[in-house]
DNA oxidative demethylase ALKBH2-like
Amino acid sequence: MNSLRLKLKAKSGPEPSTSKPFEFDPCESAKKGKSFDLGHGSEVFHVPRFLPADRSWAWFDYINKHIPWSRPTLRIFGRHLVQPRDSCYIAADGLPAISYNGHTPRAYSWDDFPPLKDILDTVHKALPGSRFNSLVLNRYDGNNDYVSWHSDDEVLYGLTPEIASVTFGCEREFLLRKKPSKMSPASNDEPKSKRLRKSHDPDQHSFVLKHGSLLVMRGYTQRDWLHSVPKRAKPMSIRINLTFRRVLP
Ligand SMILES: O=C(O)CCC(=O)C(=O)O
Ligand SMILES: [Fe+2]
């Protein structure tokens, strides 16, 4: 989405409420999704049009305005760097704290942000069996904001966590890259340059995450793959991303 979309929206009547019930069946919507087998027990499930666009804009506006965003200083390879995006952390009471890059985010309560509970309910309905209890919110304020290559492989999430990612606002590219294999299996013996000349490198994937989309990482994706949302040269408007996770109690 671009700034033109935001300008048009600002002119068009009252904002849709975040609390009104809405005609939308998350289970039906999830049926339009596609699964991608990354091999060796890793999987990505992608629903490009998961949520209705007007509902997604109402949630975008609420989250953009009401979440206590911060840009903490992180310690990366011994250097202190300001995180290149805004973030916030929500967690159920009594869960162990999470830490990344020397930073332990304050855990806000779900009760303080009722629309986040509505989004959580929607995601739970779409993904039978899921029981998320925590949420990391990221806000990318333009093309220079990013998240670098990482995996969400904290012990607190277990070995095969399901992580559900919902996007609002400007679409951005979400990249996946296989971690270097310690075993060096036969398929990795071929030089990279040669493999890249083939039509598709099976060790790299790219998804365009649109406004109202859902992307779920499952199985061994955190153990075996890295993911990132890279900087871009082209100017871009705000993107908000929510990743729902389950911290093991
Ligand atoms: O913004 C995204 O799509 C990904 C965010 C992410 O990877 C994270 O919060 O761990
Ligand atoms: Fe992540």
About this structure: Residues 1-14, 186-190 have pLDDT under 50 and may be disordered. The longest strand covers residues 134-140.
